[in-house]
Fold these 2 entries.
Entry 1:
Amino acid sequence: MYRAVEATRDILPPESERWAFVEEAARRVFGRWGFHEVRTPIFEHTELFTRSVGDTTDIVSKEMYTFTDRGERSLTLRPEGTAPVVRAWIQAGTGAEDEVTRWYYCGPMFRYERKQKGRYRQFSQIGAEVIGGAGPDVDAEVLEMVMVYLGELGVADVQLHLNSIGCADCRAGYREKLLAALGDMDGWCADCHRRRQDNTLRILDCKADREKVQSLPAIADHLDDACRAHFEGVQAALTEAGVLFVLEPHLVRGLDYYVRTTFEITAGGLGAQNALLGGGRYDGLVAGLGGPPRPGFGFALGVDRLIMILPPQAGTPDASDLFIVTLGPEAHPLGRRLASALRRAGLRVEFPPPGRSVKSRMRQADRGGSRWALVLGDNEVARGAAKLRRLADGHEVDCPLQPVTELLEVVRGERG
Ligand code: HAM
């Protein structure tokens, strides 16, 4: 027996309906903010990720699904969506200097991570990227959009954590302060000792040494004037838009392309993997990948995690409008024609194969929540009429059958 690969899974009905629901809601809400969908390939040249996400990050150094294809190219299943979107933007050659591109995407990403609740090796993200637009209003507007989206889905108990990690200049000065405060790092974990050399800021993200991290200097206290003004501008615009946030002085992200604004939204009910989404500003990324100098800002949300905290009723499929049960060899073809005509006319119709008793079928209709049921036997065929039964209260309506199907067939042009 074959099973899905470890830390991957099948999304089966009715859960799959909830996935479609959150994706449709994203299209609707993001569209109101002027975003358009982009679809990029599932795999890319490996170098795209090493150069953008950063080769000392966990994602690149430990988690990528990298393989050599038959043409001896090193390819990688995308571990995230920002670098591919920026690559696509550069490749398409779009964007005059003052133009702002707003693109969103939905789809699977791949990271070889330890299996845990809410953490998979194939997981799905809904993300949005703004390329162009350097001002703090861009950051605030996108964050407002995210909060409206979560609100419309009925997701409660979320918290927006906000920080600024400044630009490369602020960070160089801050790194010195950080190294001084770290001293010889007695008692810190092995990962942090390694990070001290190759990615000092990531020490702030250490889960094992969380308490020690709290006593380290905050990067937001070491911003230069321009970065501080940007950060204050984001906070002012969020406050004006009524978006609540908490400042998180030690929030750094696991990808190297960020400058200035970084953020995460956590949600209650997710357990240890409580980051529902994350993102930030990446003003150097477009140029870093060979494009023109353009600022960027975006986020990505983990759909697997979103589904876990969606209100129970959200996105559950509508029950059928009508359940047709047939008895006898003549009734079945009539049932089939009726089902076909009504489905084409827009109704949700269940029409199971013959064989089981009427009683068992009616139980099935009840369990599935169908609104109406119709039992067709020889008597109904002879009369050309049948009783429609409303399952909620047993109310019955006697309806002629043939004229309806005939009318629909004529209108559809299937009969002269
Ligand atoms: P990220 O924080 O690596 O950011 O991922 C964003 C979200 O994807 C996380 O908050 C989480 O909900 C979900 N996620 C990540 N890994 C897994 C996993 N193994 N299983 C389930 N869910 C997961 C990025 O990917 C950036 N590209 C975000 C961004 C867009 N920044 C700017 N634009």
Note: The domain at 15-167+224-309 is CATH 3.30.930.10 (BirA Bifunctional Protein; domain 2).
Entry 2:
Amino acid sequence: MIPENQQRGNFGGKVGFILAAAGSAIGLGNIWRFPYTAGEHGGGAFVLVYLAFVVLVGIPVLLAELSIGRASQRNPVGAFRVLAPRTWWPAVGALGVVTGFAILAFYSVVAGWTVGYLVKAMRGDFAAGITASESAAQFQALIGNPGLAIALTAVFMVLTVGVIQFGVGEGIERFSKVLMPAFFVLLLLLAGRSLTLPGAGAGLRFLFHFDPSQLTIPVIMGALGQALFSLSLGMGCMITYGSYLPRRENLPFAAVSVAFFDTLIALLAGIIIFPALFTAGADPAGGAGLVFIAMPTVFDSLPAGQLFAVAFYALLAIAALTSTISLLEVVVAYFVDEKGWPRAAVAWGIGFLCFLLAIPSALSQGAVPALSGGEGSLLPLSFLDLNNILFGNYGLTFGSLLISLFVGWKWGTRAALEEMKRGAGTDRAWWHAAWAFLVRFVCPVAIVLIFVFILWTGEYF
Ligand code: PHE
């Protein structure tokens, strides 16, 4: 057993860790990506497949990552090196570090929009009686403004680096403890409002009605990618967080709690947004701007709507921040652990490089037509969407495949279960065999089959 390294810092306690991991999981993935992906993929069929993947792939891989991290007490690259010395497995960790960097480079652009919307809400920009098309025009004005989009991305990157330079524990935990529960309560209130809107029935039917004819390969791939993205899996984020976890903590309990809250929040976001869209007569397949366009019409229908709007965007920005922190932490932990570079300098350097890489994404929403996708562009999708799918769906899915193969067939489910038993207080449990079966067979086979079908049909997104 590798001794705990106090120098690297630790999460203080069970609630602190669950909230920090939940802080990583809960973010724009739930509020921005889940509703718009569900909307584009026809609703109910997507949602059901998504839920199945959370249970069959998400929770097993989450447990796999947390055990790798805690057993090795390392960043993703070092973790594979410790558990499988003199093999090529550390390359899986390196792939994760690159994927995390690439995700951060588009995520921070969308996170910047939330800051823009917070300022708009404070200024009272969402006038009474705002229609969906007026709201869409306001959104386009914000994201299509090159200077503004870049500046907002920069603001967000600075906030992320500012927290990361002080390290986990102090930085990450303090943020998550109070604000995550507050966000949850606000979402419950907003869901209550949406459920009483005239379009509630149509919205809920869209979100929950399962129509098997909608099940296509892109829907299934999209649902898998969304489940992994939302749980921060497939790139070593949960390996890194697991490495900061004291041995007395109960990993299975933490994993199930995180998955439960993450999924609940995504569903709540859907319950808020689709009734509002159907009430406003807007298209649920409206694309990446969906939440930003839908929410102002919800606030408009509330007493003290401006107060709700300010609280919503402030908490959404913070939820995004606890996720960008976890993305940057993976890259920073790698350079600090493996190269011994000073934490603050690495954080600022990587943050700056990532900001440069984010600029084309920030400009791809109308400011620069060549990057915007579709007609007159060099790209089939906008640069931002392309990165979202390439790294968010494919990168994380490929990473999760390799992680499940590693734990299932190289390191061994027995060793991983030994790690899980520490702090769990049980020696044998019914789910041990179920988890091992999912990691060894279900996860890799499901992922490989999906990849084969994608290559076969040629439907990449
Ligand atoms: N899970 C985060 C979200 O839903 C995004 C994320 C993905 C964070 C991968 C870390 C790693 O917003």
Note: The domain at 15-457 is CATH 1.10.4160 (Hydantoin permease).
